[in-house]
Amino acid sequence: MPELRTHDDEILFQRIGEILGQPGPVPADMEIAALPVDSFALVELVIELQEMYGVRFGHDEMRALRTVGDLARLIHERAGRDD
Questions:
Q1: Whole-angstrom Cα distance, residue 47 to residue 13?
Q2: In the beta sheet, which residues pair with residue 67?
Q3: In sequence order, what DSSP letters do the residues of 5-39 get, joined into one string?
Q4: In this predicted model, what pLDDT tens digit does every residue of 19-47 receive, in sequence order?
Q5: Tell me, what's the pLDDT at 19?
Q6: Where does 5-80 sit in CATH, by number?
Q7: Degrees to nearest 5, angle at CA 16 with 61 and 43
Q8: How far is CA 50 from the centre of its chain?
Q9: CA separation (Å) from 51 to 3, 45, 57, 78?
Q10: pTM for the predicted model, two decimal places
């Protein structure tokens, strides 16, 4: 069954697309390893998202993430959101 997405998710996926220079939102099921960026750009993306949402997470947590949806869940958990 597809995962329900919240308005916050839509904003997050759109913002990731903007940061990556994509014409629209990045799909939740997109593999992080498949993002069209090098490792430096990925670090910049993570830093911007952490600042945008006021959250912090470590390198080990990032390495455990598989998809953009996993990243959204981690941000929601750290921001204390349940949606």
A1: 15
A2: 31
A3: --HHHHHHHHHHHHHTT-SSPPPTT-BGGGSS--H
A4: 888 889 999 999 988 888 888 888 888 89
A5: 85
A6: 1.10.1200.10
A7: 45
A8: 10
A9: 26, 10, 11, 12
A10: 0.79
